[in-house]
Amino acid sequence: MIAPVRPAEPGRRPTRRSREEDVARVPSHPTPGRSLVTRRALADIVRAATLGSYGVTGFAVSPIERLAAVLGMGQPGLHLDLATGRLAIELHLTVAYGLPVAEVARQVDSAVRYAVRRSVGREVDGIAIHVGALRYQPGPLPPAEPVATPRARADEAVRPDDDLHAPEPEPVRAGRHVT
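^ thats the sequence. predicted structure below, dont judge the formating
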């Protein structure tokens, strides 16, 4: 309910109630009732939680699922079972190469359960996670020039006092020192 505006006194503009009064009117306990969450909204929540998990590079999809996604007929790599009041989720993922697959799957399970519980207020009855592929993403190439070792860098370090007392370098010609 929006707080009503007080009637204006002659010569004054109407004012709203203070913010503290408005906040005090908001109920702090849940009101019993019913809410409706669509399958697509639930799929978006699960998809965001899954793709936000460390180590997940995407969903493993078949060409037919990819075509269905382009046509807007499905969520590839993500299957929801809402029959008989149950909430079961099946995920087909690709995981980054070199990471422990069991740890990534455990983290995805935790993230999806938390996201659904937090946004919908309902517990997930079951999650099945299938890893369909490992994705190898090579890093950048190493630099072309050799990298100096820490010891060489320490030898090259110049202190301010050294500049004052350093001898002049001797010129070198044809392999001989000229004096």
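The chain has six helices and six strands.
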